Amino acid sequence: MNQYETVFILTPVLSEDQMKEAVAKFKKVLTDKGAEILNEEAWGLKKMAYPIQKKSTGFYNLVEFKAEPTVVAKLETAFRRDEKVIRFITVKLDKYAAAYAEKRRAKLGKKEEA
Q1: Which end of the chain is more exposed for a tag (fewer CB within 10 A), N or C?
Q2: What is the pTM of this model?
Q3: Sheet of 55-67, strand order
Q4: What is the 3-state secondary structure (H, E, C) of the chain?
Q5: Which residues, listed in sequence order, are joined to residue 42 by a DSSP beta bridge?
């Protein structure tokens, strides 16, 4: 199993509940295909560098997971079929990036406890 990280941007016209529902849908796609979700972060509504589909902001979300390469294809197909997704990118993490992500998660965990 490889470790991946995907960041996707949802359209800003969604309500908070609709946004959470969309994120849950994509997490379900992963878990149904046997992926192990390691981390999930909602970065919130952010301004984009340039307008996409006449929108200048979007809800950013990050999901780190371990899965087989075929699962990524299924996830990206789900992203393409959903009109709520403006952009997405999935990256396979090498051992150095995976170690960095582990440190980052530990650091964020400590901040949340404090």
Answers
A1: C
A2: 0.88
A3: 36-52, 55-67, 2-10, 85-92
A4: CEEEEEEEEECCCCCHHHHHHHHHHHHHHHHHCCCEEEEEEEEEEEEEEEEECCEEEEEEEEEEEEECHHHHHHHHHHHHHCCCEEEEEEEECCHHHHHHHHHHHHHHHHHHHC
A5: 61
| Mean of pLDDT values over 32-57 | 92
Residue 27: count of CB within 10 angstroms of its CB: 17
pLDDT at residue 110, rounded to an integer:
77
Shortest CA distance to 3 belongs to which of 38, 41, 51? 38
Q: What is the pLDDT of residue 108?
A: 80
Average pLDDT on 50-57 reads 92
Structure tokens at 87: 């952009």
pLDDT, position 114: 59
What is the token pair recorded at 77? 């197909």
